[in-house]
Amino acid sequence: MKLGAVTRGVFTAFLALVVGAIVLELTGRDAVEVYRLLVEQSLLSPGALADTLLNATPLIFTGVATAIAFRAGVFNVGVEGSMYLGAFAAAWVGFTMTEWPPGLLIPAAFLAAGVIGALWAVLPGVARAYYGVDEVVSTLLLNYVATSFTGYLVSYPFLAPGAANAMSPLIAPGARLTRIAPPSQLNLSFVIALAVAVAAAVLIYRTTAGFALRAAGSNPRFAQSAGIDVRATIVMAMVVSGFIGGLGGAGQILGVNYRFIQGFSPGYGFDGITVALLVRNDPLGAILGALFFGALRNGGATIQLFADIPIDLIHVLQAAIILFVTVEPRVTGWFARWRQRPTKLSGTPLPVRE
Amino acid sequence: MLANALHPPKLAMKNVSKRFGAVQALCGVDLEVARGEIHALVGENGAGKTTLMRILCGLERADTGTVELDGRPVHIPDPEAAHRLGIGMVHQRFKLIPSLTVAENVILGSEPHRRGVLDRRAAYDQVIRLCEEHHLEVDPGARVGDLSIGLQQRVEILRLLYRKAQVLIFDEPTAVLTPQETEQLFEVLRALKEQGATIIYISHKLWEVLQISDRVTVLRRGVVQRALPTSEADAAVLTRLMVGQDVAPVTGEVSLPAPQGEPVLALHDVWATDDRGLPALRGVSLTVAAGEIVGVAGVEGNGQRELAEVLVGTRPLVRGSVTLLKREISRVPTWRRRLMGLGVIPEDRDREGVSLDFSLADNAIATRIRSHPFSRRGFLSRRAATMFCRRLIDEFNVVAPGPGTLARSLSGGNLQKFIAGRELSFRPTVLVAAHPTRGVDVGATRFLHERLLSLRNQGSGILLISGDLDEIFALSDRIAVIFRGSIAGVLNRHEATRDRVGALMLGRRGEDSVA
Amino acid sequence: MGTWTQALLKNALDATAPILFAAMGGIFAHQAGLLNIGIEGMMLGGAFAGVIAAYYTGDIVLAVLAAGAAGAAMAAIFCLFVLGLRANVVVVGLAINTLAVGLTGYLLPTVFGVHGAFAPPGLRGLAPVRLWGIEAIPWLGPILSGHTILVYLAWVVVAATAFLLYRTVWGLRLRAVGQDLEAALAAGVHPVRLQVAALLISGFLGGLAGAQLSLGELTLFNKAMTGGRGFIALAAFYFGASRPWPTAGASLLFGLFQSLQFRLQPLGWPPQLLEMLPYVTVVATLVLVRVAEARRRARLARLVTVQGQRGPELGVGGAG
Questions:
Q1: Which of A23, B144, B492, C177 is the residue whose CA sits 20 to 30 A from B443?
Q2: For chain C, which chains pass the contact test of at least 3 CB pairs under 8 Å?
Q3: C54/C66 Cα distance (integer angstroms)
Q4: Structural domain contains residue C293
Q5: Considering the domain boundaries, does residue B122 fall inside one?
Q6: Confidence of residue B300 (pLDDT cuts 50, 70, 90)
Q7: pLDDT in tens, B74-109
Q8: Candidate from A141, A310, A330 with C-beta closest to C106
Q9: Shortest alpha-carbon distance between residue A173 and chain C (Å)
Q10: Which helix (H) or strand (E) holds A244?
């Protein structure tokens, strides 16, 4: 993680907050007051920090998952889908294998979630790698398939007996992750998320597989000519991405909800995209990015209750962040070359692809 | 012809300067071209010829200087303005849209229309008329993507004529033409000249310049060395002006008999398709022995690219076999071929030779990431990479701050030296070098040629694919000509002449072959 | 059974309309060389603006125009970032979608004091139009007649799109820009003006799609009402290779799917499975098309080489 990257990320976040402030003021709210409340409710009041970490946990998973794919040049926007399917898989293990001891149950649930999440990502991965199918469209649409399908599963075959809404049976007590900061719901999945982020960083920067991944994302033709099987690398990236996404789903189910509920994710996968963009696809940076968004979400939820500010403001902030992040390198470059008139106009691919 | 106040030159560029960041591309350049003159603009890569012309075409803006047409100063802020002034350029890389028809490409930007609705009939007729007027034959309804390079170039010329261009600029027009097509182009140029067109001809092919042009302006590093009538110039004079010193071409030891080494690379009846699914290689059979350089000559687009890709392993064979050091490798993955001793200097260094956003160290080890000492049990060794890269930089005179530098910041010639150095550092038994000195300055070219010869002398076999006949003749022990995906003939160096090679490049069957 | 089918088909035409508008919008952007993923957001913004305008002015024409304008405004933001600041097309598109959700979700309670759906009583939407002549046709009549004006307009837009793109100077230049920017520049074509125009049209059409949703089928606004239709439209024009009439065909097919989903639910079919159907079909087809293409190319390669020397001279270009 380079210091320059962190600074730029912070600057971008700051700009976004300015935009949010403008929106607030234009609709008759006191921006300063709102932001003060936000900071207070997300970090300072008792239990707020724990809740912020809680909110950040799924974003660490999805942010890292997305970042890995982006790094390989694959625009995987389907982590949400992997998360849903992984979550269901974990829930299934949790409410089916009720006799197993926790030492077996929890790893099994996570493993199942990861595998299912990975398998879900394999199809668009192979389609992109070997047949050139645009992964943006395929993963995007597959998200809807995943959410619909799991919704079906818990509305019909796996509907909890006696439940009115679409949800699965509760998982066994042995499958539940320990709460580490009661009364908050913050649990072990936060620690697992941190571990996953670190492992991802090691993978990307220190292993040959990670080199192959970065090379494939940076210049696939050269990578191929250098002996890297780019297509297999793309699939590998998707598999890892889906696996981590699935783990994220397991974390939510085993740590927070204790059952699979339709619609349990208010867009964690998509938030992961924002995080990955903000930290420029760096796994360790994703931790910071996730914390930032976790704070926003936590604070946002509270001020929605207390100050009647719709949480959708957070969406506006997110949009602003995305826009500024993607523009920022251009702006910096522009300042550096501002005397010359650009003669070409084209959107630049990000991540880099062929 | 000296210009005076009564007869101003058709075109006069005065004191033109242009800077790109830290590079002064042009410095106080003057250019004067008379009406009905073919004026050659020569210089090495990076001399500024293309930049100067881009300014003339409105694709760039000069920092200082003026442009005068017929004695009157003109302002050229964009290509549209250049068109209106009657200036047009036939680029090296054609600016044609493959999925549109010839007529559509020709009229694009000045379409005949009725209140916004295209008048297709009129477009068609106008194109036909132009073809007849200038003796250029093209089918207006054909899809440009389906045409041969020579025909596509004609479409480009038609475009200029349609816009009533009076000043036509040709940027390295023969880079992709056969010798015969080049002659045809020269005829077209002469005809245009007779009709009063003013032509600027950019080239670094001296024999062409001497043949076709009336006057020559030589640029070197953005500065005009001299402008002189062609009648007063010869190859030696021009070379000296371009380079600043007499450059003795590096000659291989042509007098040696054909080496008796074992074949290190053999292709037998190789078939392969290109990206569009059409056959690009049709039964290529060729061998390279240890200690020899086999040059593959040919007009671009006859299968050279696919040949290199098949050898590297980035393109599958449909049929036939490739043998590397006695082992059949058509199913062997690239990384293993490299471990077996295959080295590759790719055609397009930016796209295939490096990752521009990676450091030099990362680029240096990219072809060997799975090997000791660069990795062990799946984990990379930073130190080994850095050390290797540093040695590489020193040994090959790469001008760069250090192994941590991004490849992006290196100049073309330096990058090429880096890439060649990387490949040569692993002592390949077989080296495939595709256009190894394209876009590289004379100094680096000499260096690379020396290294290639030295590699050969150490017993490696080199397959040299190049569009530069000078290079082929300078380095090869045997010269193979590729035409339409097959080997049209193979000649020993001492019996090869430009005529024979040229004929083979065109598909006229040669008398004999030494395979 | 006859009436059920008729109702199904009629409903399909209604469902197709927003997809058609959005898909045509997508085509304009795509032909200009820019993939507009933000159509979903432009639809949502249009739906919102349409309802708000209808509520405040009571003028339905104004409301529809407002919807279009909202879409175009979002497209303008898109242009600013993609063309002006050279940002990544996909990312900006996603941002537009998020922005739309955020702004509409934020403004609804904050400015209008409404939580959930905005369905003010007495909100007049688009009235169904009865075409007397068409209605008389046996069986087909009731299917084709009785739609809002926007539904009919959508098909006019398809024809207009085809005409604009392939028969006008503007269209030729736009396609040139989309195919090869450098070549177009060298021909003296100004890409930015064309691309901006194409994007604004794209946004406007997206807004109209939203108007059909919030003022046509139902008369309310709900944050989730676009329901992924923008992406179905995306899939439609991918199918149609950005050609207007094939895309229209695909849009019709998806409209049928949506209608089926609606109609089969009361019969006990799990709604989620039906919901999945269009997406599954799209992804499956996208993949299968490519697979078939790859197989064909491999077969062609083998064919040519087997025939050896006498292989067909396929010429320099154009796949067989």
A1: B492
A2: A, B
A3: 9
A4: no
A5: yes
A6: low
A7: 999 988 888 889 998 898 778 899 888 899 999 998
A8: A310
A9: 30
A10: helix A230-252
